[in-house]
Sequence to fold (381 residues):
Amino acid sequence: MLGNQRHLFDIPDDVHYLNCAYMSPLLKSAVRAGHAAIDAKARPWGISPPDFFSHSHAARELFAGLINAEAEQIAIVSSVSYGTAIAALNVPLNSGEKVLVLAEEFPSNLYAWRVKAKACGAQVEAVARLANNDWTNAVLIALEDKRVSVVVIPQTHWIDGGQLDLERVAEARQAHEFSLVIDLTQSLGVVGVDVRMIQPDFLICATYKWLLGPYSLGFVYVHPKHHAGKPLEHGWVNRPGAEDFSRLIDYVDEANVDASRFDMGERSNFQLMPIAIAGLKQIHRWGQVHIEARLRNYTQGLRRELEQIGFTACDEAYRSPHYLGMQYPDGLPEDILQLLAVEKIFLSKRGDSLRISPHLYNNESDASSLVQALTKILNRR
Ligand SMILES: Cc1ncc(COP(=O)(O)O)c(C=O)c1O
Fold:
């Protein structure tokens, strides 16, 4: 089992940060890479034309390595909403068909589909949560409706931490064909995915949470069947011959026929890309299976302690290993997050659940401080 990795982050001993699902802290190595990147922009004579391509390629390779894909299958985007917009522009949807999403899905996975469905005379249908949080079965039941032609799902539900079995959902295409669009923002970096098994149309991930990266950067796996699809933007950098800066006015109408044709403008992103690369490299060094094992162990221990003071959580079989959505039968005080913040304990509340999302920097002191603080707060009522 991996040991605690707090020494790789800049987190004071008295801060109990259990909120990676909100935003990860940066690794010290990523902070160094970011400072060096800003210094490089102050002296741009050191930035050469090949740098516009090499850093992006390195990032694509590292991301691809987490999902068993190839660098050419990865587009670089600013956000999940950008990735969703690409997917919505490229998957077919006809009048009378349905787009399936989960109830209480993150908005970036919803709005683009509402717009597309309206334009096509189709409908967006939200799959309701089952009492035990078995989202996979909820989706499989909804898929019995043959009018579903697009399925938009995460691997981890951002509110309750319920985990979906992506392979089982993908297998449902044997009975009934549909496009599959996946958002891995709340799971990749902890839970591995194999796109060769799942064959999604588009798989989208922001970097600022479990990939330990910067804000405003994300990646999209694009299935080869979409490699001649419609990009959102029509920039210069993702076209044949772009490497030769002296010939950019020899215009080329067709963008690269791979995922890079979907890249956002200025995707080389000299300031943020080195930070993303540092995060991805460290995840590869640890290994997702080891990250997952440690976080499962940590959350299981914490869950047991919280249950002893009256909290409940969803069925363990359907829970993501890095995520605890804890409920309190009498309800939670309105100001619970502020009361915890006074003790320098940071986490989120989503709906009526406390959302606890640790990473490898969390230690026993974080867990015991949380249990003690919650005991005190709840006994005060
Ligand atoms: C599941 C999920 N997807 C996406 C995002 C971020 O979306 P965007 O990159 O469009 O801001 C979040 C942020 O909390 C999220 O939880």
